[in-house]
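Record copied across here:
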Amino acid sequence: MNIITVRLSTRRFLLPKFLEISTSQFVSPPSLKLLAKRFRFTTNTGMSDPALDLLSKTFVSAMLLNADPDQVVSAIEKNLPVLTQEQEAQQTEILALSETFPSSASKLNAALAGKKFILGTDRPSLADLITYGRVRQTVVETWSPDEYKSNANIILWADRVQKSDIFKSHKPDESTFISTAALGNSEKKAKKEKGPKPQPAKKEAVPITPALVDLRVGFIQKAVKHPDADSLYVSTIDMGDPTGPRTVCSGLVKHIPLEDMQQRYVIVVANLKPVTMRGIKSEAMVLCAANEEKVELTIPPPGSKAGDKVFFEGFDGTPEPQLNPKKKIFETVQPNFTTNEKLEVVYKTDEGEKPLINREGKIVLAPSLINAEVR
């Protein structure tokens, strides 16, 4: 087997059985090379490292023969948490550490102390997937009960990774899991001997910023008039979700012709709580520029694809999975969404205007409305 071309159905790499698939697709060499470059993946073992095969199997729908490398990376990134610069640096360190496992087991165990996942994210990151792919077989096949107990942080972390939603497209075979059974009563006894549980530190309130709002590029596949509401369109919009397109109701009938709502890219707010509008559940909101006389759809940057993230400059964080209506997050930040003299969609702050951009720095625009509200 060529060390660059990876066959997804092979058992050469030592990975969990539940990550195997029955097809005979191949991952194209450009895709693997770009993965290595984009995710700062450096390894002494080159492209034969089992961690890359793990990515191939986890994101099999993206890793198709002759797939465009940029599309492969984009599809994978949608399933991974957005990292800060500090977390990016930690990820590089962790990848290097996991490469020398099991000799680095004690350091890895220490790095996992008190963490749900390696980088402190709320779901598995690339560092979690690659590290899990590298350590699993050694732990399952060679570790003694004492090694399990002395590296309890690794065992508990691995259990969270292997049971996470990142593998939801594969039916888990629990016989391949790293088991927590060896921790047994000794772990419970150790907890009892620690004495009274310390009071948890008071959680600091998360500041309300546009980073909490999930703004994406959407593609309207089709739009029709709502059967029971004269002012509403019902659109089918691809937002890059693995579950498929969403249904969105929007009150644009009086402002935008139906033919202009077909087969076009738009910006959507993707993490509002779904609401039922005249019997049809609406799962997102289309972002528009508006004044007293006119409403128009905002324009994504050239070359955009469904699911591409957009964010206000300086506010590239991890959005809430779903905004809590009681916290009024969107209602707090949206009044500062506007357009400027250049037709750019911006967020007004005390430090000035922050444009709505994609990862390449290209700006979201309004067709014609200057100094208009964006909602």
In short: The first strand starts at residue 6 and ends at 7. DSSP finds ten helices and 16 strands in the chain.
